[in-house]
Amino acid sequence: MIVIQVLIPVLTLIGLWLLGDKKRIAFMIFNACQLLIIYSAITTKSWGILAMSIIYIVFNIINFIKWRKPITAIPIKPSKSVFPPELERKLTENEKYLYLLRKDKNGNRSF
Question: What is the mean pLDDT of residues 98-111?
């Protein structure tokens, strides 16, 4: 039983580390950890912990499925240009960037 009580936090920390690295295997490690907690809860007759672990497994499976779905991009409408049309066509990207950084003495942008 002591081995299980040591293994549970070790697996939890490994799972958290892998989840931070965005590895899907972390969910499987969490579920393995929850199975150990369920075994421990049954042997010690801790029914609240047993119920909690079952709920955690359900959430881990749901989140694993969510991670498998592709992320769709939200379409973004192009904003109106800050440059007059005659300059929009002539300026390079670097010149546009430098323009956005340049201000006159009053804090106004100038061409």
Answer: 66
Work out the burial of residue 7: count CB atoms within 10 Å of its CB; fewer than 13 is exposed, 13-18 middle, 19 or more buried: middle
Per-residue three-class SS string for 63-107: HHHHHHCCCCCCCCCCCCCCCCHHHHHHCCHHHHHHHHHCCCCCC
Distance, in Å, from the CA atom of 67 to the CA atom of 76, rounded to the nearest integer, reads 24
Question: Region 90-94: what's the mean pLDDT?
Answer: 76
Asked if 2 and 43 touch (Cβ cutoff 8 Å), the reply is no
Calculate the CA 70 to chain-centre distance.
13
Confidence (pLDDT) at 20: 84
Percent of the chain surpassing pLDDT 90 = 28
